Amino acid sequence: MAGTRDAQIFEAALRLFAERGYRATTMADIGDAVGIRGPSLYKHVGSKQEILAGIMTATMDRLLANHHAAVADCADVTERLRRATESHVRFHVRHRLEAFVGTREISSLDERNRQGVVDQRARYERAFRDLIEEGRGSGHFRVSSAKLASYSILDLGMGTSVWYREGGGLTEDQVVYQYGEFALRLVGVRTADDAATAHLMR
Hints:
Layout: H1 2-20, H2 27-34, H3 48-71, H4 77-94, H5 96-104, H6 111-137, H7 146-163, H8 172-186, H9 192-201
């Protein structure tokens, strides 16, 4: 039961941080949102800073775990990059609030917590860069800067959390697939869509 209550606290805080901002949200606001008043809230969490750090750290933990699961048991570097990108995009389509708060409130973390999240983000970006460098080294990818390519892929995926809405004309799977295609084109891979288009233009 305690775990369920903790989850409710973090979910309520996430919504409030997204709606009002971290600084404008009080612990009393969070307590009111889950029906906990006064000192009782501190039996579950130590501070508002602890909640924000927990949200951001958990988000990065999930992204890293999803990435490793996506590329596991796959030898082909092109397919691994596609899977990694699709996992990245799918997360941001489904977790818009985490993406928004993670981007806007990084400066609200204290130095120790901020450094921990920054380190996680660096590991995540490095995982994409390593794939691109591997593909470039094996001749599968043609791209001059693996670092810029990884940043571009990550930025594309993160952008879906801003604009994607269910019922907006594109399904989640359509967006995820198309962004996988975009990622491969960024690193110089000729995709199935490119081949089909070339055939139609003959």
